[in-house]
Structures are given as structure tokens and as C-alpha cells.
Amino acid sequence: MIKAIVGVNWGDEGKGKITDTLASEADVVVRFQGGSNAGHTIKNEYGKFPLHMLPSGVFYGHTTCILGNGVALNIPKLIEEIAGIVEKGVPMPNILVSDRAQIVMPYHILLDSYEEERLAGKSFGSTKSGIAPCYSDKYAKIGFQVNELFMPEKALRERIENVCTIKNTLIRHLYNKPALNPDDIFRTMMEYREMVKPYVANTTAFLYDAVSAGKNILLEGQLGSMKDIDHGIYPMVTSSNTIAGGGACGAGIPPYEIKEVIAVTKAYSSAVGAGAFVSEIFGDEAEDLRKRGGDGGEYGATTGRPRRVGWYDCVASRYGCRIQGATQVALTVLDPLGYLDEIPICIGYEIDGKVHEDFPNTTYLYKATPVLKKLKGWKSDITGIRDFDKLPVECREYVNEIERRIGVPITLLSNGPAREDIISRTPLI
Fold first, then answer.
1. Which is catalytic among the residues 20, 27, 40, 387?
2. What are the structural domains of the chain?
3. CB 103 within 8 A of CB 282
4. pTM higher than 0.85 for the full model?
5. Which of 156, 211, 246, 341 makes a 20 to 30 Å CA pair with 124?
6. Secondary element (H or E) of residue 335
7. Is 40 an annotated catalytic residue?
């Protein structure tokens, strides 16, 4: 059986913890899109790990972890992460890298930085990880797949020369920066070849056999619905499909094999980077939530930047669940809200004097203001509670209200940073 674990909102929803929890019963975990531009933070018996390239199943010895063809592969980052977890006592994980994955090249990272510099105050808030240039090259058919590291030298050098001709025109005339040297790029690619060689595999064939054998497979998405290239808050989005439907393409499996979609959403809202964020709060109110939220505060796992925070957005989450095709929801980071006397949730958007409950396109989104409903807070620490019925009645009603509003069963609650801080819940719908 294949399950997809994906984000409902702007990313940073706690997908890593949910994947890590469910990976205990998984045979295979697959990253199907994105790259080192976002991270999952895992806390377990080995320590605390911010993962960027590695799938969240790497802490289980029985699990094969795959970086699928849809990933933007930063090879040095991958090798660095593997070494980092092994150094902390984690057994060497079983890792396969798709031979069709696109490689993030050093010039992709440079171009990402150059473009953010050029845009200045109108930038996209990029992590400068080279993701957009990498995916752009993929669709322009001038990127490099992993398998091309092993092609004959003459053919590879010809490919590099062609890419340099294109890139250097842009670098010299738009950014006024030093030109790329084809020989330097070739040497770098040879270094990458040796780094990644032990892990390269035909992962689509591996997954076909795993599906045929009835293995339990998890698809792990990066970021969330609002950052999807097609369905998110365009243009302030990532450069890949973050939705479960993209898992079929990014892993190389038939779409009908995805039987469950577990959509992850925080009990409040958070976002890194620019873009429309209707329920956002500011000032002291925001800082109070930010410093209490997440695992040690709401700061980006990749950038360290303070995350934007806001109240739970039922409009965005209902849309995010629909786009993901969610069959169930995991509600995370519930415990930080215990300091509040009242907890607002956004139940609608007011646009041009009318209240809307359907999530609009970006043009209208920028005109929207939140319609808030205030719920009574529970004013206590719920960390460590494992039974939903033992939560304060106000906390239970908060969860129930969100479930009614988004229209998808909430089956899991996270009320602490540790792997075991999980509550299974019987849904009301």
C-alpha cells in the first residue's frame, strides 16, 4: 500500500515527524519533489536532526529511503547529511537515488542568489538553494540527470559547453558577474559522480517490484499546498508540485496506487518567505506565538529566518486538503496554544465587502481580510497526554471545530516535539 504524507498549508507543518512516526511500519519512504530548500526536523533517541535532502525514514534500519526522479538533488548536501547522522550514532541508512533525478549544479545556486540580488526589495524570498534555476533547466532540457554523470566524457563535455554558452550570456549581460568555466564544471561533475555512485539506482523498477510485493510505501512531500507551482499562491511558490498527485510523477508510480493521503496541518499558521497570508498576525502578538511555537520557536529549518505566524486558517486548509485529495488529517503543534485565553480561527475571507469560504486565486487573495471566530483557550500544558478524551474540553472543542470546518477527518494529533508525542483520535466526521 502507498500512503502520501503532504502539507496542507505553507510548509513547516510537521510532516517530518508524522513520516518518522509512520515509517516504523513502512518498508520504503520516497521523497518525490523539492530539494534542500526546506527541512524536516526529527527528534528521536539519537538526538535532534534537521533533514533537508534525506527522507524522514532514515532512522529505521528496515526502511529503504529513496530520492525520486522528481527531486532537485544537491549531491554535496546529501552526502553531508548522511555523514552528519552517522556521526551521531545513527546506523547507516539504506538509500537509493534515482538515476533520473535532476542535479542542482553550483551555478544554479549562484543564479538563484544573483536573481534575488537583482530583484532586491521585490524578491521572492528564495532560500537561494538553486531550486528554481534547477527546475527551469529541467523543463528547458538543459539540466543534468544523475545518469549523465556516467556518460562518455566527450558527450558530457559537449553538453556542458552548450549549457555554458546559454548561462554565460545571462551571467555576463544581465547580472554582470564572472563567466562559468566549462572545465571547472566538468571537474565538479566528476566529483559528484564519485560521491553519489554508491546510491544510484533505477528507483522506478525498485518501486514497481515493491508495489507488486505488497510493500508499505510512504511518499514524503516537501512544503505544502500553498507553495504548489500550479495551485499555490503563485508566483510566491516553489518550482515543483507539492501535492500528492505529484507523487506519482516524482516517484515514478501509477497514480491509482496511492490509497491514502495524510495531510498535515499545524494547529496555527506559519510561513517562511513572501506571499499572501491572510490570517497573519504581527507585533507582540506574533512574537508571543513565534517564541512558543514549533520545537524551540518558529524559525526556518533551512534559513533560520523567523517564520511568519498567524491564526489557524480554515479557508486555506480546506482548500489545501481538497487539492491534496486528503483522506485524513494530522493536526500538529497543538501544545503551544495553551497560553491563550482565547484562540481565534479564520473561518472566512472578506473580499470587496463579501465573505467567502472558498480559497481564491492570488489576485483576490491580496485583497482579503480574515473573518475570525474566537474559541475559549484551555490555559494548560497538554504535553505528554496520549488520550484525546483526557485533553481539556476546550482543547477537544478546538480540534472538533477545525475538523468540522475543513471537512476531513482528523485522526492524529501532535502535542509535543518527541516521536511519542502523538495522539490517535476517532474522528467525528
1. 40
2. 2-81+205-424 (3.90.170.10), 102-198 (1.10.300.10)
3. no
4. yes
5. 246
6. none
7. yes
